[in-house]
């Protein structure tokens, strides 16, 4: 089981929602005013209908009835126009809040420390920024406007009934305890059900993503059945919870129907008594009954949408969880411009996720002067990539510090961009053209600058049909991908570059070896070397073993110590190092 990202409390989620709405308070006030006016105008209709009934009973002239009819039509048209305008403003207001929410969540998801993402699993993060954003979006654009209208209608209708005859309003209130009880029972049952459902759906997603991502391994080891079983079990658990939630919804609807029946019966019975004993007109009682009838829909809609609101709330809680885990919503931007590319690694300890049993780095100290080239060597699993990722600012160490130009590596900036760029063995290329992929590093770079950077790393544009505007295909070679990554370094021009296995083929590929040297020129370079050819030009060689530095110094110094690890390697072979 992974360490899923946290889910916030209802209060934290509500406060995030309020903060988003507060940003458009002006629009919100205008919206509420229009909706209230519209609802109030619509409520003129039942008393006007009652007045027609009384006029007919009293035998008033036909023209009076016509006037009342015209007033009803005018009230209907005005109310529809006001409510329509209010509805449009409300959707605009909510859409803006939603856009801000989406931005906050995506920003927070991208800012999550890598360790946290790895511990939670990709599927958890993906399900939050897709499913949860979706469910909150649905609620915000559909349910909330409906709820707002329903709420206004209920409150104003009850006021209207009380003005007509307080006893009628009191009779209507008999439905309230039944509705409150039904809703409370439903909320108590459904809230944990929906929260559980989200977690179970994330688990199902994780099982699926794991099987698909590892399809080759699954096929090679014939473990498809085990994976299918795991997915089936996760699905079954989620479906069982969905069924439980459906049952809770049905009981809820039955309770609401019962409340409506009891309420209408009470209004009619009290109306009958009031006409007989208190001289209330038949028209007034009709208006009262129509008011109550008007409550059916909004109350049903409001309580019925509790279901969607619940789902949206648990989605919002999971989204707030993402925002709170990075602190993106509250922490001010503390990134700092640096003066030089000196790298200081001081007493660094690092571990992958809470479930890891040992540290990947166990107290590493390394001082690299600005502009120097350091080659990291060591056997597989010794911690080279981990150290490289910390220097590139992907994550913070568990203990100790990694500084660039005196600033914590994850906050260090040069010309507004991260101070250190990492070129990993696998380069991620986005769907798009050669130029678009190169410009990720420097969006404002001209075609000439992009062409110059590509040619400096040996990327031969002349051989690519379409040149800069050629669309990258899935079959782009490893060498071309590496060259694009190195060209990005030249375009971004960071003071520090970390080449993690970027040249694993460089020993056999002089073009890539030259491209790596070109990308390291004029900046501090940390190179994870897999071939002795790559360490020859380094100022310092650092040997890592089991998460610690066991040896470091200039190549000649280390070669002068025949018992040292580096000297032995040098004597033994000039083949792969680790
Ligand atoms: N994503 C991860 N999750 C958990 N443990 C990890 C992860 N990445 C690396 N490790 C562990 O951290 C330790 C250091 O790994 P690291 O990749 O830094 O070593 P390396 O020297 O770069 O190895 P290689 O040359 O094989 O890439 C190893 O024990 C490895 O198993």
From TrEMBL:
Localization of this protein: Cell membrane
This protein's UniProt keywords: ATP-binding, Membrane, Nucleotide-binding, Transmembrane, Transmembrane helix
Keyword Transmembrane helix recorded: yes
PROSITE patterns on file: ABC_TM1F (PS50929), ABC_TRANSPORTER_2 (PS50893)
Transmembrane segments: 27-53, 65-91, 143-161, 167-187, 250-272
Protein name: ATP-binding cassette subfamily C protein
Organism: Leucobacter komagatae
Source domain of life: Bacteria
A Pfam family hit: ABC_tran
Membrane topology field: Multi-pass membrane protein
CDD domains the UniProt entry points to: ABC_6TM_exporters
GO terms under cellular component: plasma membrane
ATP-binding is among the record's keywords: yes
UniProt GO MF annotations: ABC-type oligopeptide transporter activity; ATP binding; ATP hydrolysis activity
PANTHER family, alphabetized: ATP-BINDING CASSETTE SUB-FAMILY B MEMBER 10, MITOCHONDRIAL (PTHR43394:SF1), ATP-DEPENDENT PERMEASE MDL1, MITOCHONDRIAL (PTHR43394)
InterPro entries xrefs: AAA+_ATPase, ABC1_TM_dom, ABC1_TM_sf, ABC_transporter-like_ATP-bd, P-loop_NTPase, Type_1_exporter
């Amino acid at each position: 089981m992974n360490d899923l990202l946290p889910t916030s409390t209802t209060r934290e989620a509500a406060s995030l929602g309020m903060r988003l709405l507060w940003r458009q308070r002006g629009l919100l006030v205008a919206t509420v005013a229009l909706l209230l006016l519209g609802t109030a105008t619509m409520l003129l209709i039942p008393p006007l209908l009652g007045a027609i009934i009384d006029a007919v009973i009293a035998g008033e002239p036909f023209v009076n009835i016509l006037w009342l009819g015209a007033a009803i039509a005018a009230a209907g048209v005005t109310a529809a126009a006001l409510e329509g305008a209010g509805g449009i403003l409300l959707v605009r207001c909510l859409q803006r809040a939603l856009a801000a929410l989406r931005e906050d969540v995506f920003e927070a998801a991208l800012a999550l420390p890598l360790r946290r993402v790895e511990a939670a699993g990709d599927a958890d993060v993906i399900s939050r920024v897709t499913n949860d954003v979706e469910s909150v979006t649905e609620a915000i654009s559909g349910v909330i406007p409906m709820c707002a209208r329903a709420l206004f209608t209920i409150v104003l209708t009850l006021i209207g009934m009380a003005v007509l005859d307080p006893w009628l309003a009191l009779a209507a209130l008999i439905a309230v305890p039944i509705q409150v009880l039904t809703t409370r029972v439903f909320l108590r049952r459904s809230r944990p059900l929906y929260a559980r459902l989200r977690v179970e759906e994330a688990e199902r997603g994780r099982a699926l993503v794991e099987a698909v991502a590892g399809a080759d391994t699954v096929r090679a080891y014939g473990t498809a059945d085990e994976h299918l079983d795991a997915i089936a079990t996760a699905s079954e658990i989620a479906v069982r919870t969905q069924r439980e939630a459906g049952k809770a919804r049905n009981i809820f609807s039955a309770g609401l129907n019962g409340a409506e029946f009891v309420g209408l019966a009470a209004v009619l019975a009290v109306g009958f008594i009031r006409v007989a004993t208190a001289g209330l007109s038949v028209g007034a009682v009709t208006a009262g009954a129509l008011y109550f009838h008007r409550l059916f829909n909004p109350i049903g809609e409001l309580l019925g949408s509790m279901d969607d609101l619940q789902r949206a709330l648990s989605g919002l809680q999971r989204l707030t969880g993402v925002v709170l885990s990075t602190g993106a919503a509250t922490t001010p931007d503390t990134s700092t411009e640096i003066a030089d590319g000196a790298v200081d690694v001081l007493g660094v300890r690092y571990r992958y996720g809470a479930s890891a049993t040992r540290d990947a780095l166990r107290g590493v100290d390394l001082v690299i002067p600005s502009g120097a080239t350091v080659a990291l060597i060591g056997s597989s699993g010794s911690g080279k990539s981990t150290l490289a990722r910390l220097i590139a600012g992907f994550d913070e160490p568990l203990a100790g510090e990694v500084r660039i130009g005196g600033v914590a590596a994850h906050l260090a900036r040069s010309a507004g961009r991260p101070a250190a760029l990492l070129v990993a063995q696998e380069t991620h290329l986005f769907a798009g053209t050669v130029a678009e992929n190169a410009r990720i590093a420097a969006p404002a770079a001209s075609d000439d600058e992009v062409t110059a950077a590509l040619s400096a790393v040996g990327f031969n544009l002349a051989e690519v049909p379409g040149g800069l505007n050629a669309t990258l295909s899935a079959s782009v070679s490893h060498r071309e991908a590496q060259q694009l990554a190195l060209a990005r370094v030249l375009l971004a021009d960071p003071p520090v570059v970390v080449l993690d296995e970027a040249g694993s083929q460089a020993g056999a590929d002089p073009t890539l070896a030259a491209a790596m040297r070109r990308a390291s020129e004029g900046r501090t370079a940390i190179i994870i070397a897999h071939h002795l050819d790559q360490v020859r030009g380094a100022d310092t060689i650092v040997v890592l073993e089991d998460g610690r530095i066991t040896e470091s110094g200039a190549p000649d110094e280390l070669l002068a110590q025949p018992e040292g690890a580096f000297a032995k390697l040098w004597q033994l072979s000039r083949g792969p190092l680790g």
